[in-house]
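I would like you to help me understand the sequence and structure tokens below and explain how sequence relates to structure.
___
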Amino acid sequence: MTFDKRAFDSLLEQAWRHADQAATLNDPTLYREAFMAMCQAMAMLSEEAEDWREQVARATEEYTRTEGI
């Protein structure tokens, strides 16, 4: 799976927009929307980190010839 930087940036922009609107309009529901967008962005990063960890482990096993041990 490849990291979708555009989707990630879009979520961050959405969070920023909602937070600004929440502060301007004093609307707590917009803070929730900002928080949810940040949670989605963090989930994307988490998935990417896990994929990266697996690739590093696989490459290390191949390099040290310890595959499947």
